[in-house]
Amino acid sequence: MNIFTRPLRRYAAMSTPKVVQPKWNVPAPQAEKAVLKLYNSLTRTKVEFIPQSGNRGVTWYSCGPTVYDASHMGHARNYVSIDINRRIMQDYFGYNVQFVQNVTDIDDKIILRARQNYLFDNFVRDNDTKLNAEVVDKVKTALFLYINKNFTIEGGEIKTVEEFQMWLSKADAETLKLENPKFPMHVTAVQNAIETITKGDSMDPNLAFEKVKDVTVPLLDKELGSTLSDPEIFRQLPAYWEQKFNDDMLSLNVLPPTVTTRVSEYVPEIIEFVQKIIDNGYAYATSDGSVYFDTLKFDRSPNHDYAKCQPWNKGQLDLINDAEGSLSNFADNGKKSNNDFALWKASKAGEPEWESPWGKGRPGWHIECSVMASDILGPNIDIHSGGVDLAFPHHDNELAQSEACFDNKQWINYFLHTGHLHIEGQKMSKSLKNFITIQEALEKFSPRQLRLAFASVQWNNQLDFKESLINEVKSFENSMNNFFKTVRALRNDATSSGHIPKKFGSLEKELLADFTENESRVHLAFCDNLSTPVVLKTLSELVTKSNTYISTAGSALKIEPLIAICNYVTRILRIIGFPSRPDNLGWVAQSDSNEQLSGSLEDTVMPYVKCLSTFRDEVRSLAIKKAEPTEFLQLTDKIRNEDLLNLNIALDDRNGQSALIKFLTNDEKLEIVKLNEEKLANEQAKRQKKLEQQKLREQKENERMLKAQTKPQEMFKDVALYSTWDEQGLPTKDKDGNDVTKSMTKKLKKQWEQQKKLHEEYFGKAN
Ligand SMILES: [Zn+2]
């Protein structure tokens, strides 16, 4: 048959050839598709996240720092938690986030602090840092003003130190502290000043001035504050603390914002925005040149609602006045309602000021965020975030201002509030002495430990920073470090082992199934309000399963699923903000990030080559002198326990397999050195004990031999006890000539037999 005719005949045999593809079936998913939900303060529930762009674009505004002092752990919790959320949205869910954050560099706290620092520095300089009579007088005046202003004292003013001490000794400190949390702080300030006035001469002058500062600055400010007009005074302090804040954020590996906005650079836009609110009928100017937001009118409007985040706080004067700032004049200034808040504040003498249609003044606190957020992100924004203590009135006022300006119903779609931070179950405060700045925290904990601590608690829940949390963090860190190190060592091992079997068995299939299941749980946790605590727990479980596989599989271990899992764990940790190694097999060691890996190949390799070369020399010299096998083994112990360990390398011996090579950090090396030393000390103690027992045995043996020298026939030949003996040397009469009793003879005979046996043992029967 011809090959060309055969296919033709086949064709011919077919009836109707198919010319269209068969029907394709749409796959049926095994579970419902998870959607990302966020806890929204505007609904107080988790709601599906729907970006306005309908696609990848997400706009996000976050309230930044008021820069007048060092940032503390509460700030760290807020900024790191928001950073984690932002990274997950960007790097896990793939959104293109435009993240805007402000710097509040115009604020009553800044004005006061800048003025007081400036005046106090002048005060110290004008007096040549000497505690002269004039200074002491001034401090005394300031002291009593401070006492009578900050303590409620029944029965008139305090005029002497003795009166104050008497009052304090009778005061109920616990109750006063409950009434005013700043009570202990005021007491400390007063006591410091009293101490300095009393023994000022013997104190270091710089310390003396430092100790009277708190009570003296209010008086200096009262007398001279209004004379200050140089804007530079109000620029330097916030510029300094803004830099410090940025340094802190860098240390904590917080991503910088896409756009940073400073209030001082936005005054014209703020004036324009305020004017628009006035034009829309929701704000009014007062006779002193301030502008207030008309909360009642806004709330009554059918299109608007006031206090969307926390409506139950409407009318809370302590919250409202606190937010208005300490330089505000709360007395009759034409404000229509106590709920109304300043959009624009008339500046008094000694306060920075800008020209405006209402007179010289400066922006109120809340308006800046509305203006700057909208300037960059427009009149409708996807996400706004900040600490929960900002929810009312700051964020509620921001919402009202913006919705009044744009006359829209919903300026922000998702309001995310990070939870409070407590320290060992208590609110953090300077008076409780549990106030920790970020810099202080970084002296005790690594940035990774702080981030892990924050990620271990749901971002919108209260976080208690306590010992047990830190212990959990450290144990998580250890288990991750061990896993990464083991996988890297196994990978190196597999690479150098040549052509090894790859076929999956049941153990590998089980591991792969566990991997898929954990991946899906991580995904569900991220979708469920970015739940990092559940994600970390799931990663931890995946690592435990992998470790079980490693120990069960032994020499039949397959490296591929382990590398896949290690890459995955590394990726998820990177998304939460822990930088990865270039090979994606673990996070960057904390010590590595500071160490510069530099130098030539020769410099890097030399210590290792030297170690190998020395080992070779020693093996050769042992072989030449035909040493015992134990000597070779001692040499292999030495290279493992000393030489390689000094180079930060650990060799883990394995049954029937070559040793596993692990690279160690310095801390891990020290840990092993310590363990080895303990082991050595234990062995030495055991040897010592053995030696002592040996000695004791020898001593007993000597005594026995000495005893054996006496022949049984001679052993009772003592005239002080006996007078006659039989032929075997057994006594028959005692020294007085009496017969030895039968029972005694029996006893002596027994001793005689024993001695005979002993003697014969050493000297034989012949003797
Ligand atoms: Zn804000």
TrEMBL record:
Residues 52-474 form the tRNA synthetases class I catalytic domain. The keyword Nucleotide-binding applies. It is an enzyme of class 6 (ligase). SUPFAM superfamilies: Anticodon-binding domain of a subclass of class I aminoacyl-tRNA synthetases, Nucleotidylyl transferase. InterPro entries: Cys-tRNA-ligase (IPR015803), Cys-tRNA/MSH_ligase (IPR024909), Rossmann-like_a/b/a_fold (IPR014729), tRNA-synt_1_cat_dom (IPR032678), tRNAsynth_Ia_anticodon-bd (IPR009080). Residues 727-748 are annotated as: Disordered. Residues 673-709 form a coiled coil. Pfam families: tRNA-synt_1e (PF01406). Keywords: Aminoacyl-tRNA synthetase, ATP-binding, Coiled coil, Ligase, Metal-binding, Nucleotide-binding, Protein biosynthesis, Zinc. Its cofactor is Zn(2+). Its EC number is 6.1.1.16. PANTHER family: CYSTEINE--TRNA LIGASE, CYTOPLASMIC, CYSTEINYL-TRNA SYNTHETASE. This is cysteine--tRNA ligase. It comes from Saccharomyces uvarum (Yeast). The gene is SUVZ14G0870.
